[in-house]
Design brief:
Pfam families (chains A, B): GerE, Response_reg
Protein name (chains A, B): DNA-binding response regulator
Organism (chains A, B): Salinimicrobium marinum
Structural class of chain A: alpha/beta
Keywords (chains A, B): DNA-binding, Phosphoprotein
Oligomer: homodimer
Strand content of chain A: 5-15%
Number of domains of chain A: 2
GO molecular function (chains A, B): DNA binding
Radius of gyration of chain A: 21 Å
CATH architecture of the largest domain in chain A: 3-Layer(aba) Sandwich
DNA sequence: CTTTACAAGGGGAAAATTCCCCTTTTTAAG
DNA sequence: CTTAAAAAGGGGAATTTTCCCCTTGTAAAG
């Protein structure tokens, strides 16, 4: 009896190719190939066969992987979902895992490991590649470097063309306090200029533009 | 007689899946699957069968797609190469085409169109998807707003923690000249601070981080 | 109780950025 | 030929950012 797989990825060439590969694996068959989270919601809302595993990309238009995981958490919290993506950014990995994702696969995984990952999830419920395990291991450490509420507020304003004086006005603070926050961010981010802070914030997706 | 394809992509799951799909197409067969430009150079330097088409990803470690195209231009200028990538950044598209790439495929192409693209390249030499054709059509317009060579050089250095004085040293210019360039960028980008310039450059993917 | 973290703030000044007024030379397009 | 663009650069100064030295008060944890 075949394990049923649903593939959700907007890169059609990839998803169709992957369908071929999965169908060539003994014990696995692809139920359908969907292009985004919205199509998946529609699929679940119709009386179609539910899959054993959902392979879910993250970067998709209309409804992305994170949003889709949020929907699963609320509607089908036990559905086994494996992220399958190029995104190896820590924040994304942690977020997906917290939302109940059973594993996180990068697209450079080889087909044997891919098959092993699916089998592991079906048997024990979770699969972590070495890279992802590293991220989880170090994520507790990283938490120590998180920003305070006020710092984060300041950081968002720093990533704009406002002068510090203007930022002080917006936050109802003295320019001297702003200078204090600037100093705190410099220390935390090992930055030596506002530009450095901005580059860090955007690069690490603390702030989006 | 089958058309011979070489797949160059570091995402193994994708490339192995794609191999399966291509091999399932009548008249096509995959010679080999390589992980980066360096592996491809090694392949060409050995006495192996040359492919009819190379499917080449851009973002790869060790030797990327651009570098690989440069190698082809110098060593096998007539080799038919199709870019196959997620990168829909205009600068990248133009660069690849200028280096002799016969077509530029995005990974959200469907398998039928994919097959048609390969057939078109084999027959007439070139294939452009609608999206890429748009880029080419508008790239002449855009050139009017493009940065000069020196401005671009400066812009990349601005998106760093170097002081203008340091940038002047790196570009072998006077700080007054740097100030001139700063002014030029401010005018072109309607910016009023270095932070504004940095935000624009990153947002519009003129500079990547 | 002490210590730490967070929030808010000060004095003073050096360094960096921005601004405002220009210049000359070379090259390419009309 | 003229004009515009690109490249390189200058004097001078105001504004902003960064730096270095601190402070107090509150809340939470040990």
């Amino acid at each position: 009896m075949s394990e049923k797989i649903l593939v959700v990825d907007d890169h059609i060439l990839f998803s169709q190719s992957l369908k071929g590969l999965i169908n060539s694996l003994q014990d696995f068959e692809v139920l359908d190939v969907l292009k985004n989270g919205q199509e998946l919601v529609t699929y679940y809302e119709s009386n179609k066969i539910k899959p054993d595993i959902v392979l879910l990309d993250i970067r998709m238009p209309v409804m992305d992987g994170i949003e889709t995981m949020e929907w699963f958490k609320e509607n089908f919290p036990d559905q086994k979902v494996l992220a399958l993506t190029m995104e190896h950014e820590e924040e994304t990995i942690i977020k997906m895992l917290k939302l109940g994702c059973r594993g996180y696969l990068l697209k450079d995984i080889d087909p044997d490991e891919f098959r092993y990952a699916m089998e592991t999830v079906l048997q024990s419920g979770y699969y972590y590649s070495n890279e992802v395990a590293e991220v989880i291991l170090h994520s507790e450490d990283k938490r120590k470097d998180q920003f305070t509420k006020r710092e984060l507020e300041f950081l968002h304003l720093v990533c704009s063309e406002r002068t510090y004086k203007e930022i002080a006005g917006e936050m109802n603070l003295s320019p001297k306090t702003i200078d204090g926050y600037r100093e705190q961010l410099f220390a935390k981010l090992n930055a030596k200029s506002r530009t450095g802070v901005v580059l860090y914030a955007i690069k690490n997706k603390v702030v989006s533009i």
